[in-house]
Write a structure and sequence with these properties.
The protein is globular. A hairpin with a 4-residue loop joins strand 7 and strand 8 (78-83). The chain has strands at 3-7, 10-12, 18-25, 33-39, 45-52, 58-59, 68-73, 78-83, 92-99, 108-109, 113-117. Strands 2, 4, 5, 6, 9, 10 and 11 form a seven-stranded mixed beta sheet that branches. 29% of the residues are buried. It is mostly beta strands and 119 residues long. The protein is 0% helix and 50% strand.
């Protein structure tokens, strides 16, 4: 059974940093792609970043480049999202997801972790 467990969310002041983690189990970590998405209050799902696990190639929408960094530790079956210079508009529930290829739309998701940016 595929399991994705996010952690690392919390309350942070504007300008602060957080690192989210997503521990994966139940599948071969290397043979997948993984992404981070977020859902802000009263907004739709927004893609934050993605990575090809095997070769480490990373992808970001233009709006996320520069402040967010996706990475992975293949030995720990763990995906990370480093978030810097956080803004109030980054407040959202962050989810990690996995699929077998970029061409697939069949994602498995974690339960999410809340990130709140407020002073």
């Amino acid at each position: 059974e595929v399991q994705l467990v996010e952690s690392g969310g919390g309350l942070v002041q504007p300008g602060g940093s957080l690192r989210l983690s997503c521990v994966a189990s139940g599948f071969t970590f290397d043979n997948n792609i993984m992404i981070w998405v977020r859902r802000a209050p009263a907004k739709g799902l927004e893609w934050v970043s993605g990575i090809t696990i095997k070769n480490g190639n990373t992808y970001y929408p233009a709006s996320m480049k520069g402040r967010f960094t996706i990475s992975r530790d293949n030995a720990k079956n763990t995906l990370y999202l480093e978030m810097n210079s956080l803004k109030s508009e980054d407040t959202a529930v962050y989810y990690c997801g996995k699929a077998r290829a970029w061409s697939e739309n069949d994602y498995s998701w974690g339960q999410g972790t809340q990130v709140t940016v407020a002073s």
